[in-house]
Amino acid sequence: MSLQPKGPGGRQGFATLSLEYPMSLGVFEKYVDAQKAVDTLSDNQFPVENCLIVGTDLKQMERVTARLTWGRVALGGLLSGVWLGLFVGLILSLFARPSNPLTLLLYTALYGAVFGLVWSLVGYAFTRGARDFSSVSQVVATRYEVFCEHKFAQQGRQILAEAGIGVGVGGHGSAPMTPPQAPPTPPAAPSGTDQQGPPPAG
């Protein structure tokens, strides 16, 4: 994986999310392993402000939490509407300064509950049973690659190697290869055996 060098026209807000000439220190399957590698570099006085952790091979995970029913949908809409009404009532009480702020909060909570109830039931009716479950989703990475500036790459690899932190295959952070084995030496011929070919025919 490679990262493009930061150009002069780059956005100022993303200056900390880019490196000039990045080189890979290694690829890890879990974020905690990549975090441990950077923490090890930091403990060894490595300039970690030149490091970058990049998640690659993104995938979306969705965890089903419950089965949806009309009652569950109505209760969820009611509660969310109450919270929304209380929030609006609080804002109004700060700027409008009513004579009785508590009454205002009660009315806005009631109106919010009715609005949330109707909105949730209408929205659920439009799905027509196509999604009768609730869930939470999250986008996660399957691999995490640690980069650093090219001028600190050799120092970073040496620190990780001395700490015994193994890295996966990826970019310049590949694990060291085992040297090839020499081919086996053929066995020596027994002594006293004629090494020449058969005698010529007479």
Automatic annotation (TrEMBL):
Record bears the keyword Transmembrane helix: yes
Positions of the General stress protein 17M-like domain: 25-100
Transmembrane spans: 73-96, 102-126
Pfam families per UniProt: YflT
Region (Disordered): 172-202
Lineage, highest ranks first: Bacteria, Bacillati, Actinomycetota, Actinomycetes, Micrococcales
Protein name according to UniProt: General stress protein 17M-like domain-containing protein
Entry keywords, A to Z: Membrane, Transmembrane, Transmembrane helix
Feature: compositional bias, Pro residues: 177-189
Source organism per UniProt: Terrabacter carboxydivorans
